[in-house]
Amino acid sequence: MSFFGVRSDTLGKLILVPAASTTDFRSVLEKGNILFFPDGGFSLPPAVLPALMGATQDARSIHKNIAYKPNVDRVSGLIDKSESETVRAGMREYSRSALEFLSRILPEYSRGWKVDYASFRSIEERGRDLPLTKRNDLLHVDAFPTRPVFGDMILRCFTNVNPEQPREWMTSDPFPQLAEREADHAGLDRYAALSGSGLHNLRRSASRALRGLGLPLVDRSPYDAFMLHLHDWMKANEAYQRDCPKYRFDLPPGSTWLVFTDVVPHAVLGGRLALEQTVIVSRKSLANPSLAPASILEKRAGRTLTV
Ligand code: SIN
Ligand code: FE
User: Fold this and answer.
1) Nearest alpha carbon, ligand 1 atom 5
2) Boundaries of domain holding 178
3) Which residue, 11, 109, 229, 301, has fewest beta-carbon neighbours within 10 Å?
4) Residue 167 in contact with ligand 1 by CB distance below 6 A
5) 261 CA distance to ligand 2 middle (Å)
């Protein structure tokens, strides 16, 4: 198995840093690098691709991808429901092998992470017709509307399973620089003011009560609210999209890459057929918890944002 950290500091070029030059992959990731495995890092079970390749995905549905929830063993995002069983079996196998790989190379994270969804990205990204806040070709950091993280972090493992085409990514400078440059313009103060406020406490009590009655109102922290806002704000901000530093990567067929997608602004410009598994990494298990976006924003705001 070969490991490489991709240093995101040159335009249009992959710079490969051999694993021997580093001992702790946590630090590589937390600093906003992409950890890159040209040979895929792990073997996909042979049944996975045949099970997925015929899957029909609705390009304009509310589901951006075919998603698999490992905790309940369910798939969503298919047009033809008769495919569910086959696709579910393929995704289950993929998810299991990706999680096994991640726990092997990042054991400290695996002890405290929450397993999130896996996805199959079958649609060509170039020219994809999606509403602005759902567009994948605009730089953004990730935040999940339905799954608040309370300061923990979004680690994603992607594999390009397209036998011919690279997956074309663009990234920008990671969260410390992003926050320095844009957090105030994006309105961090307004979200920091929520922390401990009557309104925030009221919303949280209401969401708990409504959930008890089976009505899903998401119980999120001021940090989660800000990150959701930042995701949309970045996509809508023409000046940021135009002027920020940009780094281009072509991720070749068969390769795997790991990245904290809430630390690294990213966009996908082209490519189809990728698999992805997400885990939510506990802030406590980071090699350097002060690099968590929540820690950076809390320091900036001078108060806790994650309760
Ligand atoms: C994203 O997370 O914004 C999309 C990345 C990808 O599908 O390659
Ligand atoms: Fe994203």
Assistant:
1) 268
2) 3-301
3) 11
4) yes
5) 6
> Two tokens at 154?
């979004």
Query: Which ligand minimizes its atom distance to the CA of 156?
Result: 1
Give me the amino acid identity at 63. Answer: H
Full pLDDT tens readout for the chain, 307 residues: 456 666 655 544 566 666 655 567 898 899 998 989 888 989 999 989 988 887 776 665 667 788 999 999 999 888 777 778 888 999 999 999 999 999 999 999 999 999 999 999 998 999 988 999 999 999 999 999 999 999 999 999 999 999 999 999 999 999 999 999 999 999 999 999 988 777 777 777 777 777 777 776 788 999 999 999 999 999 999 999 999 999 988 999 999 999 999 999 999 999 999 999 999 999 999 999 999 999 999 999 999 999 8
> 228 CB less than 6 Å from ligand 1?
no
Say whether pTM exceeds 0.70: yes
- Residues lining ligand 2 (ion), CB within 5 A? 142
User: Measured from the CB, is residue 235 less than 6 Å from ligand 1?
Assistant: no
Beta strands in the chain (DSSP E): 4-6, 16-18, 34-37, 66-69, 74-76, 114-121, 153-160, 167-171, 247-251, 256-260, 266-270, 274-281
Residue 306 lies in a domain: no
Task: Give the number of domains in the chain.
Answer: 1
In this structure, what CATH number is given to the domain that contains residue 48? 2.60.120
Identify whether 285 is part of a domain.
Answer: yes
Measure 260 CA to ligand 2 centroid, in angstroms. Answer: 10
The whole-angstrom separation of Cα 82 and Cα 75 is: 12
Question: Is residue 307 in some structural domain?
Answer: no
Ligand 1 centroid to Cα of residue 224, in Å, is: 20
Distance 108 CA to ligand 1 centre (A): 25
Smallest CA-to-CA distance from 146 within 217, 227, 234, 199 is with 217
In a domain, 233, yes or no: yes
Backbone φ, ψ for residue 157 (5° rounding): -115, 115
